[in-house]
Amino acid sequence: MKPKNPIAALFARSPFKPMQQHMAVVNDCVALVPVLFDALIAGDTKTMAETQAAIFKKEHEADQIKHEVRLHLPRSLFLPVDRRDLLEVLEVQDAIADTAQDIAGLLQQREMTVLEVMRDDLEALVRRCVDACAQSNAIIGELDELIETGFRGPEAERVEEMVKQLNAIETETDDIGMALTRKLFAHEQVMSPVSVMFWYRLIQWIGDIADNAEKVGDRMLLLIAR
Predict the structure, then answer these.
(1) Is the pLDDT of residue 1 over 70?
(2) Which domain holds residue 43?
């Protein structure tokens, strides 16, 4: 007997379950990023390698779900939501996992050293960006309830409040990221110009996790507004 496609089975129950499953895998992927940086700070190359491999695996899993969603998402849904809007949400979700993979890939390809003065802000930035992703995962988790209520009423108000909290987290990551960048440039004389360049890129990518998480929330607000 031919095995059933698990994504197709999810669509049979709800066209939105695979979207939620994709975001859950993305969240699992991003949750590994603090482990990666903790290992970097500790000089634990074994844990770094294991965590990098785990991030690549989760990102690949998210990609597979994304492709299945694109294939199976009905072109006509008798529901108060447009297929194109859902695909836009899916793309932003996937960008979060892609960014986590980019971070892991850079740390795999180049040896990076964390200056003592940068450690606290770096750890705070990473963890707050992970919080932003977790919040966007919680928001996507409300998609079924939003559909049932027609994107109106107390459930819509609840999601709007969750998005406000997400926006506040993202603003906080911006502040931490700017403080970290100032410290990087204030101590660039003790680093090679190439190392400064790579650290600047890495800080931007960490912040992109929160930026894309916020975009997920913003697109959910658009669905409510329509």
Answers:
(1) no
(2) 15-225
